[in-house]
Input
Amino acid sequence: MRFAEKMLLNAKFYPLVRRARHWDGARCALGLVEEGHICYGIADLVAEQLFPWISEVSLPYPCGCSWHPLCGRERAPVNAIIAQIFNEHVIDRREPVWTLERLADWIDSVDPTPRTPEVEAVEAVESIAICDGKMVCS
Output
């Protein structure tokens, strides 16, 4: 399962919290993908263990905010970008406002993890619509 898919799936089951991976049953974007027993706010398997690319790949900040000192000027590891966008733009709703789905779309666009054939098959089926009794691709 890719990072964005797992994040959105688990967001259905946990309340969201900013600036803490795990806090009183709530989770941030990175905490949503973590697994195992949670002890003192730390999971057995943290996001960077499950998805090593998020700490290995550095990219420019995609949010375009004028107030963040690094935005547009620096590259950062993807996990730092995820945390910044989630905390400031998704939860705090600072301009420009992002949704969790928009963050997931961005993460998915930079995720180097190969898609599995099962996922591609499901996406292909989901892109087919029925119109007047005939199948059409959307």
Residues 124-130 have pLDDT under 50 and may be disordered. The longest helix spans residues 78-91. Helices lie at 3-10, 47-50, 53-56, 78-91, 100-110, 117-126. Residues 14 and 41 are 14 Å apart (CA to CA).
